[in-house]
């Protein structure tokens, strides 16, 4: 696909985009199709988004693929989503590798299908030295679960005497998260018309710029990503300070 990224000063390109891939079910239902048909369409869309990030020089993209709350869906849909995540990783990891994408997984291990974990880990292993960009696949991810998991590991270290409670800083807590290297989210992007974060990257997004778009994810295009980045670049970020 020929991409025409907007000409934006590199200073105003987000270093980390969090993308909520939402609206697949509605997209399918509007067409009289099964919800799963919408999920299937999302595969190519995500790959286009990766290309668009590379074209713009966005170094980190986190994609919300399955939340800790998505287990509430029908057994059929959950089963489909598990198998689908596994197969997308198996199908796409070589191409992502060839593009220089480093794939990482952020999420909770218990309950997640072993075959999905296997594919996530195989993709991580294959691509671990890549430097073009990082794609974090958030599978069985929940922001509260992430903080609980971090707290448990941190508490173990306090208990064993490795860490003093008084020495715990924001940086310390950050180092116990699923991906300790993950930069703060600059642009939090959610298509599908919903204006909420749905438990995605709360710790990392405290100063993120929120951009909500109405398109459903299966219709999402690189141009929508470019539009979101242009909007982001126009925002005045103050981080609690005052405008210079
Ligand atoms: C997002 O699309 C995919 C996942 C949550 C796995 P949805 O399945 O939530 O689609 P809508 O929001 O019901 O349209
Ligand atoms: C968020 O979408 C999770 C993913 C896209 C993976 P949901 O569709 O699950 O979120 P809610 O239910 O609308 O908040
Ligand atoms: Mg949804």
UniProtKB/TrEMBL annotation:
GO terms for biological process: polyprenol biosynthetic process. Keywords: Magnesium, Metal-binding, Transferase. It comes from the Bacteria. Its EC number is 2.5.1.-. Pfam families: Prenyltransf. One of its GO terms (cellular component) is plasma membrane. The active site is at 22, 70 (proton acceptor). Substrate binds at residues 23-27, 35, 39, 67-69, 71, 73, 190, 196-198. HAMAP family: ISPT. Belongs to the UPP synthase family. Homodimer. Catalyzes the condensation of isopentenyl diphosphate (IPP) with allylic pyrophosphates generating different type of terpenoids. PANTHER family: DEHYDRODOLICHYL DIPHOSPHATE SYNTHASE 2, DEHYDRODOLICHYL DIPHOSPHATE SYNTHASE FAMILY MEMBER. This is Isoprenyl transferase. It comes from Corynebacterium aquilae DSM 44791.
